Amino acid sequence: MARPPGSPDATRGAVRVAVVAAALLIGAAVHPGRAASVHPDRWPAGPRNLLIHADTERFIDSLMANMTLEDKIGQLIQADIAFVTPREAAQYRLGSVLAGGNSAPYGHLRAAPAEWLQLTNAYRRAAAGTAHPAIPPLLAIDAVHGNARVRGATIFPQNVSLGATHDPDLVRRIGRATAAEVAATGFDWTFAPTVAVARDVRWGRSYESYSEDPRLVARLAAAMVDGLQGTLGTPDFMAAGRTIATVKHFLGDGGTEEGRDQGDDRASEETLLRVHAAGYPPAIDAGVLSVMASYNSWHGIKMHANAALLTGVLKDRFGFNGLLVGDWNAQEEIPGCTKFDCPTALDAGLDMFMAPDSWRQIYRNTLAEARAGVIPAARIDDAVRRVLRVKVLARLFARGPEGPATKPPSLAVLGDPAHRALARQAVRESLVLLKNNRGVLPLDPKGRILVVGRAAIDIGQQCGGWTIDWQGDHNTNADFPGATSIFAGIRAQVEAAGGHAVYSADGRYTRKPDAAIVVFGEHPYAEFEGDRETLEYAPGNHRILEIMRRLRGAGVPIVAVFLSGRPMWVNPQLNAADAFVAAWLPGSEGGGIADLLLRGPDGKIRHDFHGRLAFSWPATVMPVRFAADGSVSGALFARGYGLEYAKPARVGRLPEARHAGADVNGPQTLFARGHVTAPWSIYLDDGLATVRMTLPDQVAPARHLSVRVDSGGAHATWTGGGWSDLRIGGRAVDLSGRADHHVALQLRFRVASPPTATVRIGPVCEAAYAAADPDGRGARCGAAHPPMLDVTHAFAAARSGSATVLTLPLRCFADAGASLVRVAAPLSIDTAGRLSVSLIDARFVRARGAQPCPPAADAPAR
Ligand code: BGC
Ligand code: BGC
Q1: What is the largest CA-CA distance in the chain?
Q2: All residues at 6 or more sequence positions from 61 whose CB lies less than 8 Å from its CB, including other chains
Q3: 56 in helix, strand or coil?
Q4: Of the candidates 692, 664, 689, 687, which has an alpha carbon nearest to the alpha carbon of residue 676?
Q5: Cα 667 to middle of ligand 1, angstroms
Q6: What is the pTM of this model?
Q7: pLDDT tens digits for 239-285?
Q8: Is the C-beta atom of 327 inside 6 A of ligand 1?
């Protein structure tokens, strides 16, 4: 896109083409040669005038007639509560404010509901006090399984569970209850439901997907939208206690290569339409007011820049007349854009930037571009109209044509007993019985039941990600007032029936139990932190399996309850158990598990299993595969499978060989968007001392290096005069398996000023980390200063300000002589010269084809 000379940041606005240096493999952020094209005319045409009413449009006309260009640009921007005060939001007339995954009232993640309400009121009041026309902001939150960011809310099962219920009516009722709890805290808008059709469940967001089956996703998407917003065409639509829904992420998020979050979807146009788009038309028909664009690419083109899909398909063809919001700074991924400036995305059809920390600059830049005519006035007006339309239809205007704003439910609705009962019903309906040999289930509550495994008493684990905070991995049971752990649910029913329920973390007991319920599974994660290389459950950690085998050896019947965000390869655990229940991520109402596992006090079966697999269960550590006709290969249990008490069947012994010989699993992302993935941290080392950055303090100096971290990356400046390095490390990991499996370390960075001396990259294993290595085994990579690669060229050749991608196959480090068995820091960048660079992200990726290695670097004298 042409930019006016002299516009703000015009130098950075030049079209950016990532540098391709010959000797190194520097992949560009776009793959122009592979671009596939979209033919909107081949996509089904939806209704034309949905959400358009003459009186609302007239009202919008009258508002717009009194708006300045500044007012209009403000409406197109959404900032995050952590980065904008109510006063600033009002002053800039921002269209919306969100509470991001780690943002909470005044920084308190565990704030009381009343504090959330106070916060939303503050933004609303500030906007009401501005000059005319006063336009209320849309206040948004990720209420993706109930209003689960807020303490005390009912936490419904995650979408992976809801898919297994196959029950649209239940999903609709969950939408209603969620909307009420969201509205009570003063929010108008939730970023849900995710309508991804996850096809490779190694993807860390698989649990946000209802199913691998597009038809099921379509049914549940429409039901959830109807539940959240109320029924379109009735007075119930966006009545008090309803919440604006968002179907996300458009398009193809569930179809990325190898299930990589934010990755590239290379599906055909046909598959995109038949599979990945399935949830959109029914949600649009149900009146969904917003759609979120996706981080992923399609054939190398970032969705936020794909005009043919955003405008041609979603708006023009599907007839979506609501508001298309961007994802969290996703605009910065577009070549030629930064998070501060991206006319391309608006041009492609985005109506609102999600610019959490970047709102001020994007406001300024967009305003300048609108003034200069870089963005056509008609496009700006269309985007503003869509934002206002949603506000009018959501009855945000006290005197809008949709009738006066009504009073939302009171805070008492949070954790309402009826909502909890509904959540518990959803738990019951979502459990899938994979195995029940010898009719071990249901258990007699009058007996002695041993409940084993920490997961049985960890409410955070049963809730998963997007709970209280983004990852959901820092919670304790005190964060869930009113919730029930799985053990507490079992104990209540067993004791009521006169039996004994005993909890034991490690399976030891004093009196032999009649049966053991062993609860285990994945720990919470969100987004890319949940990406995995294989589907093997807990590779290298056989603790639970050993407990199960030991108990079984002692003649105790075993019931396994598996908590996970996706189906996984658990053949050894399936063999070790007599009965096996896939319990997914049930949320706050753990009592629903006991409802199915135990008979009533009268000895009768109270509830049978009705959950059926919405995802094929894999036969190996690798995910199932889909043929073009949708048929699946590689499944152990097919989609639709699920035993019932009424229809028992025997499961025979399963093969336990796991094929993949080495640890190719573990987190795939080291660092992204200002966030270091557990178990790693950022370290600075100047040869004298090692400084660990404690984010979010976010600024750390060493002798020749200083680093500042924000959501745009780690901004590092080497000042020259001695060696210093920037590392991501902290716990020894075995990368040798990944090296054998063609995994590469991939960095994305922008060079602000080029290197003046050699720049090296390599893994590090040093004594400095030995303390963090519990078993103290071999904290060295084979040499005091392990072999590193000379990447000076990549940094020197990078165009100033452009994002450059550097892909380094792990094999290159091994070839240069590094042992990758106990690597304490997978990434270390060092130089003795001057260099200023922003590391945007660092990940492990699957390297394709034969890739050249940069030359080995000489070990410097420190
Ligand atoms: C996620 C979205 C989410 C947004 C706001 C992004 O990182 O991809 O699904 O709605 O953050 O928290
Ligand atoms: C935010 C989330 C966002 C995530 C991704 C977190 O800090 O709170 O909303 O999805 O970053 O970058």
Answers
A1: 82
A2: none
A3: helix
A4: 692
A5: 19
A6: 0.82
A7: 999 999 999 999 999 999 999 999 999 999 999 999 999 999 999 99
A8: yes
The C-alpha angle 510, 511, 512, rounded to 5 degrees, equals 120
Ramachandran quadrant class, 673 (left: phi over 0; alpha: psi -120 to 50; beta: rest): left
Rounded-to-integer distance, Cα 713 and Cα 699, Å: 12
Candidate of 80, 83, 103, 142 to mutate for ligand 1, largest count of ligand atoms within 8 Å of Cβ: 142
State both tokens at 24. 């190194």
Considering every ligand atom, which ligand is closest to the CA of 676? 2
Q: Residue 345: name the closest of 361, 358, 332, 357 by CA.
A: 332
- Beta strand pairing status for 323-325 and 500-504? unpaired
User: Is the per-residue pLDDT at 505 higher than 80?
Assistant: yes
Q: Is the peptide bond before 557 cis (omega within 30 degrees of 0)?
A: no
Instruction: Write out pLDDT tens, residues 414-436.
Output: 999 999 999 999 999 999 999 99
Distance CA 785, CA 388 (A): 60
Closest C-alpha to ligand 1, atom 11: 328
Q: Is 316 a catalytic residue?
A: no
What's the number of CA atoms in the CB half-sphere (13 Å) around residue 367?
A: 18
Residue reference for tokens 């952590």? 82
| Distance between Cα 327 and ligand 1 center (Å) | 6
Handedness of CA 592, 595, 597, 598 (dihedral sign): positive
Whole-number Å distance between alpha carbons of 63 and 42: 37
Q: Report yes or no: 711 and 705 within 8 Å, Cβ to Cβ.
A: no
> Is 527 a known active-site residue?
yes
What are the beta bridge partners of residue 707? Answer: 700, 716
**Ligand 2 center from residue 111 Cα (angstroms):** 18
Q: Does residue 101's CB lie within 6 angstroms of at least one atom of ligand 2?
A: yes
